[in-house]
Amino acid sequence: MKKFNLTKVLSISALALLFGFACTDLTEKLPSELTDDSFFQTEEEFIAALGDAYTVLGAWQNHGGLFALNEVSTDAVAIPVKGADWDDGGIWVDAHRHTINSEHGPTNGSWNFLFSGVSNTNRLISQFQTAVENGSADPALAEEFIGELRAMRAFYYYFLLDNFGNVPIIDDFINTPAQPANNPDFQAGRNQVFEFVESELLATADLISDDPRASYGRFHKYAAHFLLAKLYMNAEVYTGTARWADAETQLDIIIDSGLFSLTDNFFANFATANSSSPETIFAIPYDSVFLPGFNMHHMTLHYGHQRTFNFQDQPWNGYTTLQAFYESFEEDDVRREGFLIGPQFDASGNPLIDNEIAEGHELVLTKEIQSIRMDTPLSRQMGARFAKFEYAPGSSPDLDNDFPVFRHGDVILMKAEAMWRQGNGGEMYFNMIRDRAGVSPITLNGPNLLAERGRELYTEIWRRQDLIRFDGNQGGVTAFNDPWWEKDVSPSFRNVFPIPFNQIQANPNLTQNPGY
């Protein structure tokens, strides 16, 4: 089933990845080969044309963009400077400490990535609509695919809403100003983006496929309901008005469908061959040939781990977890096994040696990290490394694991939280997740819920959002603004990122977010 319905799509569209994600002009019109009036005659032809809506997602989980920005700005992930390694002009120290400015490169990369998705979906919607209008495509056949594209556009806009707040709404590929404006009032603009995402998902959820297996790797009905649930779970952050009951309604649609369930083995969701997991709702079907870009192994592992896994290329020795986050896992929590710590060995079981520290020095990863800026040889082995996803021996720089963007484990935790927020319990759902992890039930409250979401969903891009949704208790307005490790209390305007300087320079109609 792996790559089903997207294999042909991705093989047709893989070359699109070579052109990158530059999107300074938000109405950029990309050329297409799929404009022949006779093309959109069959379901297969529509599916083949969908590729550009999804190949953008090759940049979802890689270094320097949205994933990195959302993870490194949290209490779970850091990229400490290790002597001459990983200084990078201080961009990752700034991301972790919440001190970035509008010239921060990964922020600009995230903006470009998301608006590339908007541009591609808008172009395809326009092509499909034109085919219907000129009589070359069956309107009934086109409706589902246009609905799917609108839902995917809402997906990209959801993450623009979450990360940047107030952005231009572009829903017409042809009749859009070259330099579209966002709302001069931040909150009014953010409300408009929220309403756009909501209306698009509500309008399309029943138009698109209700078979998540046949539509694997593509947006379908239950992915739309999941995204609506996320929208409503964070509605109070986005708009100032809580929508917990609405979130629960969307979650119940997914739960009551009976189509998804928790896997017995937590790590089966992240295996190399994970496309059959009953827990996955929407995944990016990464493939080292057809959809490259998943390089978590290179991002986190020590240089010496090339000999552990016989990788084709050497890892970068970058991303680590923080000591306090690692210690938040109980010792018998199976999810703790998703970290590499302690003595490390090669594929034959021999100790790995790091001669850069000292001749014959054995590689022992420590949970302690001396500082976010370190100038000692031992810094090379500080910090537990992420191994939640399986790293297949012999892998190229691109893994073949699918990335579960929407997962049923998250549905269960959101259900528990939505009930708890309304004073309706939720303990049963909360402790379902802990039971699968092999740990005992605990009291359902705000701190425990936030911590459990961290343990369940680390490196799945939700931690920043979760920290913002929960109240701070150490001096910050929210948990995201609280201090941790070497981060001070941060002001609440940091809960969205700045509109990148490059974008405002190219489009003076954009109004910068408050505080930047």
Order of strands across the main sheet: 1-6
SS-based structural class? mainly alpha
The portion of residues assigned to helices is 25-40%
How would you name the oligomeric state of the polypeptide chains in this document?
A: single chain
What's the tally of helices? Answer: 19
Task: State Rg.
Answer: 23 Å
Distance between the termini: 47 Å
Total strands: the figure is: 8
- Major beta sheet summary: 2 strands, parallel
Describe it for me?
There is one protein chain. With 516 residues, the protein is mainly alpha-helical. It has a domain at 296-386. Helix content is 39%, strand content 4%. It has 19 helices and eight strands. It has helices at 7-13, 43-49, 51-55, 66-72, 91-97, 105-133, 139-163, 186-204, 221-233, 235-239, 244-257, 296-300, 306-309, 323-327, 408-421, 427-437, 446-457, 463-469, 501-506; strands at 81-82, 280-284, 339-340, 342-343, 364-365, 373-374, 385-386, 403-407. The chain has a two-stranded parallel ribbon with strand order 1-6. Strands 2-8 form a two-stranded antiparallel sheet. A two-stranded antiparallel ribbon has the order 3-7. Helix 4 crosses helix 6 (105-133). It is globular.
Structure, briefly:
The chain is mainly α. 39% of the residues lie in helices and 4% in strands. It has a domain at 296-386.
